[in-house]
Amino acid sequence: MQTPSGSKCHCDRGSPRHGVCHCKGLFNEGARVAILDIDEKGVMDSALQLDGKYGRVIGRRVDVTNRSEVEALVSEIKSLWGSVGILVNNAGGALNTPYILEEIDEKDWNLVVDVNLKGAFLCCQAAIPEMARKGRGAIVNISALAATGGPLWLASSIQPPRPGSRG
Question: Which of 8, 19, 139, 148 gives a 20 to 30 Å CA spacing to 87?
Answer without folding.
Answer: 148
